[in-house]
Amino acid sequence: MATIYDVAKRAGVSVTTVSRVLNNRGYISQETRQKVYQTIEELNYQPNELARSLLSKQSNVIGLIIPNVSHPFFGEFTYAVEHYAYEQGCKLLLCNLQLDPVKEREYLKMMKRNQVNGIIMGSHTLDTEIYRNLNYPIVTVDRFIDDFPFVASDNEQGGRLAAELLIKKGCRKIVHICGNQSLDMLSNLRTKGFNNTAKSAGIETVVLETKMNVFDQEEYEYIISNMFAAHPDLDGVFATSDIIAAHVIKKCEQMGKDIPGQIKIVGYDDVSIASWICPGITTIKQPIEDMGRIAVNLIQKQMNLESICQKNILPVELVERETT
């Protein structure tokens, strides 16, 4: 079986150069890089990942903790993180938390065993002191936790844009369906932006919060049914996700309510389903791809002891479709 020394000898380079090519570290000319890769292929060399991680104290693996991979926003965010991590020579260790503290502890143990380069935290149930004591580079998504750098879209502006559009379209009683406000999430700012804008315009609003598990789609159906029963005169809905907006559309179709004639709907995220569904969902677009790229870059910068920006808030965009 070929060794790294065999690769270096045949390629006419040092062992250090081969190691840099394999780990995507330091400057290597394209000509040298191609020569090393060609030699690796010719010799069928298989790098020993475990040995490399033990020697370098790094595994070139980034841990990603998310609440629910089946949710379209987190599915698309995971795709972006994996794409940019791979470009940086890293692989992804995906932890689908589902708000389970037992799973979370097990995943943290697994990340320690694998000596991850850092953790992108899109969900947590355990005390944040546990994360602080890990001494890993950490980036949070849509949550502000002490001195950890975070990535988020401009949630408050998103709420304002949604309210402004619904008011402009003539809505006079708007229901806002949002996540549980007791959770310390930056996404709560969507509600703040919406409420402040509607209040300034003298528009009647109703805020309906989900329970602690904000991804329970059966609960969406329950909330929406009760919404129409309790507020038959509503003419606008601002949903905190495109998935909730899709459930509102489904209920309107069952009740024979015309969209956008009788009910106008604005979602949030601009995941793929927003443009696939009929009618297409007017929504607030989060720059999901950019959020994934920046999260990976923040991990890499912390690893390299580079200066970073703690607050990384990206602009949102109103995308108007058939529901308004």
Automatic annotation (TrEMBL):
InterPro entries, per the entry: Cro/C1-type_HTH, HTH_LacI, LacI/GalR-like_sensor, Lambda_DNA-bd_dom_sf, Peripla_BP_I
Keywords: DNA-binding, Repressor, Transcription, Transcription regulation
Gene3D superfamilies documented for this protein: 3.40.50.2300, lambda repressor-like DNA-binding domains (1.10.260.40)
Domain HTH lacI-type: residue ranges: 2-56
PROSITE patterns, per database record: HTH_CROC1, HTH_LACI_1, HTH_LACI_2
Coiled-coil segments on the chain, per record: none
GO molecular function: DNA binding
Domain HTH cro/C1-type: 3-50
SUPFAM superfamilies reported in the protein's UniProt record: lambda repressor-like DNA-binding domains, Periplasmic binding protein-like I
PANTHER family on file: LACI-RELATED TRANSCRIPTIONAL REPRESSOR (PTHR30146), RIBOSE OPERON REPRESSOR (PTHR30146:SF95)
Name of the protein this chain belongs to: LacI family DNA-binding transcriptional regulator
Lineage: Bacteria, Bacillati, Bacillota, Bacilli, Bacillales
